[in-house]
Specification:
Structural class: mainly beta
Number of strands: 14
Oligomer: single chain
CATH topology of the largest domain: Alpha-Beta Plaits
CATH superfamily of the largest domain: NusG, N-terminal domain
Helix content: 10-25%
CATH architecture of the largest domain: 2-Layer Sandwich
Order of helices and strands: EEHEEEEEEEHEEEEE
Number of domains: 2
CATH class of the largest domain: Alpha Beta
Length: about 180
């Protein structure tokens, strides 16, 4: 983020970031727009596992952040601090932290063209044999116990004849299946 914004004639406008309360990005956007500001929260499709069901849901690309376009000359940003769903305004001391010119517009363009995609994490099934590819247990074969939404995998390792549960980053585990 920079402390400058885009020039538009004699006045300047720019995008700033608001830090929101967890899972209240949509509430923050609605309440910011009610105050007359333009708000944007880029969304991506994400795989969600809950109660043994897997579905695809829309989630914020940047959890807990919303972008707001403001008129820098009037600098009427303080009402944003008391907006429902908003925790704070991203700033440097008392100076607003304006986003680089064109960043939000590019995000909007990419989202409309379905070009914003989160990288898919490797998918493992409980009971699947995997190889640990990094860390203390590198090259050990393990059995997948479960996976979580935050890219973690619980494994059952056989270490010196004992079954040991261990949690690993999904990117550091490779399936033993042949594809």
């Amino acid at each position: 983020m920079t402390s400058t914004s885009a020039n538009k004639g004699s006045e300047y406008f720019g995008w700033i970031a608001l830090y929101t309360k967890p899972n209240l990005e949509g509430t923050a956007v609605k309440n910011v727009e009610r105050q007359g500001y333009q708000a944007y929260c880029p969304m991506v499709m994400r795989r969600r596992s809950h109660a043994r069901q897997v579905d695809i849901v829309r989630r914020p690309l940047f959890p807990c952040y919303v972008f707001v376009r403001i008129d820098g000359c009037r600098a009427r940003w303080r009402p944003l601090l008391s907006t429902i769903g908003v925790r704070s305004v991203v700033r440097f001391g008392e100076q607003l932290g304006f986003l680089p010119e064109g960043l939000v517009e590019d995000l909007q363009t990419y989202e409309q063209a379905n070009l914003l995609q989160q990288q898919n994490t490797p998918q493992f099934e409980p009971g699947e044999s995997v190889r640990v590819t990094d860390g203390l247990f590198q090259n050990l074969i393990a059995e997948v116990l479960s996976t979580s939404e935050n890219n973690r995998v619980w494994l059952l390792l056989d270490i010196m004849g004992r079954a040991v549960r261990s949690q690993h980053d999904a990117w550091h585990v490779q399936s033993c299946r042949t594809r």
